Amino acid sequence: MDIKIVGTVEYIDIGTGAWAIATDTQEQYEIWQPAPEGILQDGLKVSVTAKVREDVMSFTMIGDVVEVEDFQISS
Q: Is the peptide bond before 36 cis (omega within 30 degrees of 0)?
């Protein structure tokens, strides 16, 4: 299932570490690796098209795992 996410990229320092997108509505999505080049920058505001990966598990368990298909940097 493809979804649109608008939020801020964050590095989560838990376990081995994880990258996530946090929205203004307090939702958090873990970014599946490998991620598109240029998106893994702490504090980067983005608009993302992503696929929810229901077939994978995560040690961090911070939110749904998403595979970023496309992104644009927001201001």
A: no
What distance in Å separates the CA atoms of residue 19 and residue 35, rounded to the nearest whole number?
Answer: 9
The per-residue pLDDT for range 4-45, each reduced to its tens digit, is 999 999 999 998 899 999 999 999 999 999 999 999 999 999
Query: Is this model's pTM higher than 0.70 or not?
Result: yes
**Which stretches within the chain are classed as H helix?**
none
The answer, yes or no, to whether the previous bond of 34 is cis (omega within 30 of 0) is yes
How far is the C-alpha of 13 from the C-alpha of 15, rounded, in Å? 7
Structural domains of the chain in order of their starting residue, each with its CATH number:
2-73 (2.40.50.500)
